[in-house]
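Regression test case RT-17, inverse folding.

Input:
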């Protein structure tokens, strides 16, 4: 198939380009310099020139604090950008895969969220991402809206200063010998490589709709850090940080675990427990030259 991946130089986009290419697809990787999703004319011009069968959108304004400071910019990219892509996807009769977030929920449920649960975002980022979901679902029938959580991958995450959580933990352990991590936030840490493989599989189906797509199981950030240090045999003193030690500038959900109910009900779920995905990431990290690891 002919695939256009938007945000191809991002943490997820990089793995998507690789996964689709390995699957034998013709992939056009598009970055911000190639397409401006908040500009309808740019979206139309670029995608009509490629005429892809599948459009995968990973582009977004991810930085939560920046979204809160600049809600109009966040809405232009996360909401209207999704709408612009949906309009052109409909015109081209292409499938649109739109990547969304666990931040559409407020974390108050206390048990894994399923697709039927009512979203209640706490911040501008979550609100604008939810608006993007609504635009996609209302505009084009051939869509996959995919919510995910706690992403990490080998490519740098620009919204987080180039370091994913794993690399940050290992860096801090090496520099300080002691690391403090909160245990009050619970997520499903998800490998971008594993999510990319899931999206490739999903695109082969015509079971359009809303999906949750995360690694199986859940943990606190403290438990995640402990597993990282255990698997890498890192000598470090890991302590629990108090809830007010790293005060959040913007409200965030304390519990944002997603259940892949729709994937499982259609026999499409390809995710493994988060511990297995972490072990694979760390194994590949050892094989990767140091110059290629984001630090």
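Golden output:
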């Amino acid at each position: 198939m002919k695939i256009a991946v938007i945000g191809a130089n991002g943490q997820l986009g990089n793995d998507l380009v690789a996964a689709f290419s390995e699957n034998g697809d013709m992939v056009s990787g598009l970055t911000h310099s190639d397409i401006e999703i908040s500009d309808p004319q740019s979206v139309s011009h670029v995608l009509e020139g490629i005429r892809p069968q599948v459009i995968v959108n990973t582009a977004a304004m991810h930085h939560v604090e920046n979204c809160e400071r600049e809600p109009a910019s966040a809405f232009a990219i996360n909401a209207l950008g999704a709408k612009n892509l949906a309009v052109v996807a409909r015109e081209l009769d292409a499938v649109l895969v739109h990547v969304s977030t666990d931040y559409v929920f407020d974390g108050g449920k206390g048990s894994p969220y399923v697709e039927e649960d009512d979203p209640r975002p706490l911040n501008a980022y979550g609100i604008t991402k939810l608006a993007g979901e609504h635009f996609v679902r209302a505009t084009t029938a051939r869509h996959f809206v995919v919510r995910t959580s706690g992403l990490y991958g080998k490519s740098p995450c620009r919204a987080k200063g180039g370091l994913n959580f794993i690399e940050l933990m290992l860096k801090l352990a090496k520099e300080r010998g002691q690391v403090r991590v909160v245990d009050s936030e619970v997520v499903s840490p998800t490998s971008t490589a594993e999510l990319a493989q899931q999206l490739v599989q999903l695109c082969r189906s015509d079971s359009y709709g809303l999906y949750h797509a995360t690694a199986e199981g859940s943990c606190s950030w403290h438990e995640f850090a402990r597993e990282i240090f255990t698997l890498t045999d890192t000598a470090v003193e890991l302590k629990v940080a108090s809830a007010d030690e790293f005060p959040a500038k913007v409200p965030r959900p304390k519990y944002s675990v997603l259940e892949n109910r729709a994937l499982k009900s259609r026999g499409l779920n390809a995710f493994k427990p988060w511990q297995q995905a972490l072990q694979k990431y760390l194994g590949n990290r050892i094989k990767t030259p140091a110059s290629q690891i984001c630090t």
